[in-house]
Amino acid sequence: MAMQGIRSLLLLLALLGLCLVHPSSGDRRYQKFLRQHVDPESDGGDATYCNQMMHRRRMTVPRCKPVNTFIHESIWNINSICHTTDIKCKNGQMNCHEGIMKVTDCRLTGGSTSPNCRYRALARTRHVVIACDNSSPVHFDD
């Protein structure tokens, strides 16, 4: 009887380990969204901010990402967008949502190449569109 309990416990631990090692596609997309777009600790700002953040968040190799937006809101505020009315995304799917957020838009300057990508910045409060999966943001659509 004790051996059956140990086998059940080992099976449960193995399944739990698989979940930790192999996150679902939605979890990976959510983590990528956080890495690429969320910076609640800062108000963003200038080109130095964009240059540092794009490099720090690994968006300058193997090539320079041409445009990226950092959102300067709490993750709670960002997640709450997923509970607004569904709207159509650029790809035609109906899992996008919109809101107003403080952001810094980083745009690649002409002539810069990886890994020395250079960006110009525009910090402002503006309308954003975010795609969500299971009530979690997974893609910046605007």
Automatic annotation (TrEMBL):
<comment type="function">
    <text>Cleaves preferentially after uridine bases. Has antimicrobial activity against uropathogenic E.coli (UPEC). Probably contributes to urinary tract sterility.</text>
</comment>
<dbReference type="GO" id="GO:0004519">
    <property type="term" value="F:endonuclease activity"/>
</dbReference>
<dbReference type="InterPro" id="IPR001427">
    <property type="entry name" value="RNaseA"/>
</dbReference>
<dbReference type="InterPro" id="IPR023412">
    <property type="entry name" value="RNaseA_domain"/>
</dbReference>
<dbReference type="InterPro" id="IPR036816">
    <property type="entry name" value="RNaseA-like_dom_sf"/>
</dbReference>
<dbReference type="GO" id="GO:0005615">
    <property type="term" value="C:extracellular space"/>
</dbReference>
<keyword id="KW-0929">Antimicrobial</keyword>
<dbReference type="GO" id="GO:0004540">
    <property type="term" value="F:RNA nuclease activity"/>
</dbReference>
<comment type="similarity">
    <text>Belongs to the pancreatic ribonuclease family.</text>
</comment>
<keyword id="KW-0540">Nuclease</keyword>
<dbReference type="InterPro" id="IPR023411">
    <property type="entry name" value="RNaseA_AS"/>
</dbReference>
<dbReference type="GO" id="GO:0003676">
    <property type="term" value="F:nucleic acid binding"/>
</dbReference>
<keyword id="KW-0255">Endonuclease</keyword>
<keyword id="KW-0044">Antibiotic</keyword>
<protein>
    <recommendedName>
        <fullName>Ribonuclease 4</fullName>
    </recommendedName>
</protein>
<keyword id="KW-0873">Pyrrolidone carboxylic acid</keyword>
<dbReference type="Pfam" id="PF00074">
    <property type="entry name" value="RnaseA"/>
</dbReference>
<dbReference type="GO" id="GO:0019731">
    <property type="term" value="P:antibacterial humoral response"/>
</dbReference>
<keyword id="KW-0378">Hydrolase</keyword>
<feature type="signal peptide">
    <location>
        <begin position="1"/>
        <end position="26"/>
    </location>
</feature>
<dbReference type="GO" id="GO:0016787">
    <property type="term" value="F:hydrolase activity"/>
</dbReference>
<feature type="domain" description="Ribonuclease A-domain">
    <location>
        <begin position="26"/>
        <end position="142"/>
    </location>
</feature>
<keyword id="KW-0964">Secreted</keyword>
<dbReference type="GO" id="GO:0050830">
    <property type="term" value="P:defense response to Gram-positive bacterium"/>
</dbReference>
<keyword id="KW-1015">Disulfide bond</keyword>
<keyword id="KW-0732">Signal</keyword>
